[in-house]
Design brief:
289 residues; two-stranded antiparallel sheet; two-stranded antiparallel ribbon; 4 strands; mainly alpha
Length: 289
């Protein structure tokens, strides 16, 4: 590349950068580049739209043995809906029930603690309970017991509901279940006061002779076999007792007083136990009076 001559005859040379000047120029270029890189990094990101916090959860406790009507009332109260709302929902909710239940969730509203919040519905809570029962009652232990005893799942739940209503301890539950199996095997009526109480919508240990003549399919004094449906919602202990009762020849039992349930295969001995029960009840009523 040539230089043009200057007016005085001298050629003009372009000034050359010294080594130090070149270093200053490079450093400046790097500073500009770094600033260009940092600008997008320092630019604040757009804020996400505000999301409201989830509604606070509460807990609904369903104890063992509660009847469906009691569970419905508890759900109505918890969700602060009009009485009877959950009962109506049970009739239309698509619950995972065995065909033998015929749409009646009695026995399958598994007793447990259930979380709920402002978004919960009666049908949703009922489904939660029935699905929990399906999981718990579908265990291998229960399935094997059902097969071993030659009963269906619905029959096992039915037996467990009576066991839950009649016995207070795990040991007594197994023996009550054995009495039920023995009576069914011999074609004897179950004669369970708890089934009459269910028909009358009450809970009592005092059953009269007139009660045993009640015209109801739940009167197991008059009708043989199991009642038309479970009479409450049993827990796992009662269900295990129903499908795996201990061996024994017991046909009768009576709770003479709390913690003292007598089991026997002898009707005569049972009558003596009943006499003790009646005496204890009479004494209790006299004391209360």
């Amino acid at each position: 590349m040539t230089n043009e001559p200057s007016p005085g005859g001298r050629s003009r040379r372009r000034p050359r950068l010294t080594r130090r000047g070149r270093l200053v120029l490079v450093a400046g270029a790097l500073a500009v580049t770094a600033a260009a890189v940092l600008v997008p990094l320092l630019t604040p990101e757009p804020e996400e739209p505000h999301r409201p916090p989830p509604p606070p959860q509460q807990k609904l406790v369903i104890p063992e043995g509660r009847r469906a009507t009691q569970v419905y009332a508890a759900i109505d109260k918890a969700l602060k809906v009009a009485p009877g709302t959950t009962g109506k929902a049970a009739a239309t909710a698509r619950l995972k029930l065995p065909p033998e239940a015929r749409g009646n969730p009695e026995g399958y509203l598994f007793p447990a603690t259930y979380p709920y919040d402002a978004t919960s519905t009666p049908a949703g809570l009922l489904s939660f309970m029935v699905n929990t029962a399906d999981q718990r009652f579908g265990s291998r232990h229960i399935a094997d017991g059902i097969s071993r005893n030659g009963v269906t799942l619905h029959q096992a739940v039915n037996i467990a509901s009576i066991v839950q209503a009649e016995a207070d301890t795990a040991d007594d539950m197994g023996k009550v279940a054995r009495v039920i199996h023995n009576r069914l095997a011999q074609g004897m009526p179950l004669q369970m006061d708890s089934t009459i109480n269910y028909a009358l919508g009450r809970s009592t240990v005092d059953t009269t002779t007139a009660d045993t003549r009640l015209r109801s399919p739940y009167n197991t004094y008059e009708n043989q076999g199991l009642p038309p449906s479970p009479i409450g919602n049993p827990g796992e202990v009662a269900m295990h007792a129903a499908v795996a009762p201990p061996p024994g020849d017991w046909l009768y039992f009576v709770t003479v007083k709390p913690g003292d349930t007598r089991f026997t295969s002898s009707y005569e001995e049972h009558q003596r136990h009943v006499a003790e029960f009646n005496a204890a009840r009479a004494e209790a009523r006299a004391t209360d009076g």
